[in-house]
Design goal:
The chain has helices at residues 2-11, 16-28, 31-39, 41-58, 60-73, 75-78, 86-93, 97-109, 125-132, 134-149, 153-158, 165-169, 183-195, 198-207, 225-233, 245-257, 294-307, 325-341, 349-359, and strands spanning 113-117, 120-123, 215-219, 238-243, 264-268, 282-286, 313-318, 362-367, 376-381. It is α/β, with parallel strands linked by helices.
Length: 382
């Protein structure tokens, strides 16, 4: 009793919003209170919605595996252009009719498939997006590694996991000399980044007018997916890609096959240490800073500031923390992803602005993003 009184006295010193939240939490913790809320028509809908959201969190691992199975089996692609009946789908995908019926039904529960007519199935909106976007499918299949790293999340958080699948996969994250990585060490992750870049490229190109620049350099540009998209959107834009030598070699072939070789320059190096070319009037960092720990972020930005000409515009696009629903989903996902990867974290725009300012950049601004789930966007000037 004395401890309760002391706690209550201590609580009186807390800010009012926090005291109200603690009172609310105590009420919700009582089973009797929850039963009362469920009986009141005014609050029942809120209670049902909250219960469904909690159940969704509890069972999310099953939902992700339904998605994984649908992609592995080719369900969404099979239904993209025409509806089908379960029997024909079963033959096509190698399942029994009963298991095919189950797969269609659980996908319908998640809004991925629809029984448009008795015995005739097609895709829901989300299923269409999955079927038509190879980058999304590649990311879901890539989760096979992430799932294994999350089998014992308590050990991952405690730091007692010796080596992770994602740590091995992202070779540069664990390399003291990333510039010396051989082609075979960068091939898988470079291909994944290229395949998954379409939505990010569209988001950034819609948010910022790159047509105002003469030359665009994408630092850490991978195999050139963003430069290809920017080059198609702005035919007069000169293109420059800077990445690790082994990655830059792959980018040169792909930019050539895209018909952009005459407009593109490729440079290999380590963007944290090597001096970067200074010809561009706009430089992009797309999904770069979030991959690295604070010390390397500071080194990357300091090297950029040292290398670039005054007046050069810097554009940053990556997963950022924020209050928007999309930003919160993204940062929850990447919070554990970067932990398993062994490098990087999601930062807020304010944190990134602090790094930019410390490196000497000015005119730091947050740009409205068309989709905060995909990216937060910031600009600064050298």
């Amino acid at each position: 009793m004395a401890a309760d009184v002391a706690a209550a006295r201590g609580e009186e010193q807390l800010p009012l919003p926090l005291r109200l939240r603690l009172w609310r939490n105590r009420q919700i913790a009582k089973p009797g209170f929850r039963r009362l809320i469920a009986r009141l028509p005014l609050f029942r809908r809120i209670a049902d919605r909250n219960a469904s959201a909690l159940f969704g969190l509890m069972t999310g691992f099953v939902h992700s595996q339904i998605l994984f199975a649908g992609i592995r089996l080719g369900l969404y692609e099979a239904l993209l252009t025409r509806p089908a009946d379960p029997a024909s789908l079963a033959r096509q995908l190698g399942l029994t009719p009963e298991r095919m019926g189950l797969l269609l039904a659980v996908n319908a529960d998640l809004g991925l498939t629809i029984e448009a007519a008795p015995g005739l199935w097609t895709l829901g909106d989300a299923g269409v997006v999955l079927a038509s976007d190879p980058g999304l499918r590649a990311m879901v299949l890539h989760h096979d590694l992430f799932y294994r790293d999350l089998l014992e999340p308590d050990r991952l958080l405690a730091g007692t996991t010796r080596e992770t699948e994602l740590g091995r996969y992202w070779a540069y994250a664990r390399s003291a000399e990333p510039g010396l990585l051989p082609p075979e060490a960068v091939a898988d992750y470079s291909a994944l980044m290229r395949e998954s870049q379409a939505m990010m490229a569209a988001c950034l190109l819609d948010a910022h007018d790159f047509g105002q620049y003469r030359r665009l350099m994408d630092v850490g540009g991978g195999e050139g997916a963003f430069l290809m998209a920017a080059g198609r959107r702005h035919p007069g834009l000169r293109l420059h890609l800077f990445d690790l030598p082994a990655v830059a070699e792959r980018a040169a072939d792909l930019l050539d096959s895209a018909g952009l070789a005459a407009r593109a320059t490729i440079t290999g190096g380590d963007f944290a240490r090597d001096r970067l070319p200074a010809e561009a009037d706009c430089v992009t960092l797309i999904r770069i800073l979030c991959d690295h720990d604070d010390a390397r972020v500071a080194a990357i930005l300091a090297n950029l500031h040292r290398s670039l000409r005054p007046g050069t515009r810097l554009v940053i696009a990556e997963a950022m923390r924020g209050s928007e629903a999309g930003a919160r989903l993204s940062s929850a996902y990447f919070g554990l992803y970067f932990l398993a990867m062994g490098s990087g974290r999601c930062r807020s725009p304010a944190e990134i602005a602090g790094f930019l300012s410390a490196a000497g950049f000015r005119d730091i601004r947050t740009v409205t993003s068309p989709n905060r789930l995909i990216a937060g966007i910031m600009t600064a000037t050298r």
